Amino acid sequence: MSDIFIGSLISALSTGLGAVPILFMRNVTHRLRDVLLAYAAGIMTSASVYNLIPEAIHHSNWFVLSAGILLGCLVLLVMEMYIPHADLENPDAKTFQLESKSFLIIAAITLHNLPEGLSVGVSYASESPNLGNLIAFSIGLQNAPEGFIVALFLVNQNIGRFKALGIATLTGAVEIFTSLIGFYLSSWVNGLVPYGLAFAAGAMMFIVYKELIPESHGDGNQRIATFSFILGLMTMIGLTEWL
To answer: SS3 breakdown of the chain: % helix, strand, coil, rounded to 5?
Structure first.
């Protein structure tokens, strides 16, 4: 129980940790942002392909794996279609007037973190002793640049830097609760763990292909973003071998 709480706490608070530089930085280049997003994409791809998917198919079969992955993608698709979200690809765009719709934006960003918390919880419920730590770490690495971008968006909407840091941290805190939900559901319901692992893989791969990769390739930084992605992939594989 202590492992799941600590892992989810570290993963969630990484969002706020990633937003800390907003207190000191005045200008953030697209190049740096794209490098961070691509690195996070590599981390999440490795976690999905080399950890979640093999673990899911080890405890089930191809049909369970496919059902879980497709469900994870469909859930993220519905969220992406029907939940308004900030234009993180262009933080300078004044898409929303935060004064009148701040709650809607913050809620939307928070809801986008729900599948990540579930991924951590389900991973800790599996029989693999190190899978939970690996997924919590990978989600945490992904959350750091996400928190930075969210804070940057809020600052560009004339929100104070400390307030933006606090809001970015809170958007990640929801992962603590959803990870506990995923852990207990998987522990209580027999046969749910492989579905949950596959669901987590599908959700993470949707985020990678739909959000992180396109955003990291949208400003002419494709080459360095590609190498950053590969570096993230190799980092997670190395951590898997080390742990």
So the answer is: 80, 0, 20
Residues 6+ apart with CB under 8 A from 190: none
Q: According to the model, what pLDDT value does residue 66 have?
A: 96
177 HSE (CA, 13 A, CB side): 9
Token pair, residue 171, equals 């958007």
CA-closest candidate to residue 140, choices 167, 112, 116: 116
- Quick one: which H or E segment has residue 138? helix 131-156
Q: How many CA atoms lie within 13 A of 213 on its CB side?
A: 15
Could you tell me the sign of the dihedral formed by the alpha carbons of 64, 129, 147, 221, in that order?
Answer: negative
How far is CA 202 from each of CA 32, 77, 145, rounded to the nearest angstrom?
27, 11, 21
Q: pLDDT tens-digit profile of 129-154?
A: 778 888 888 778 777 877 887 787 67
First to last CA, the chain: 20
Task: Tell the residue number behind the tokens 């701040």, with chain if given.
Answer: 102
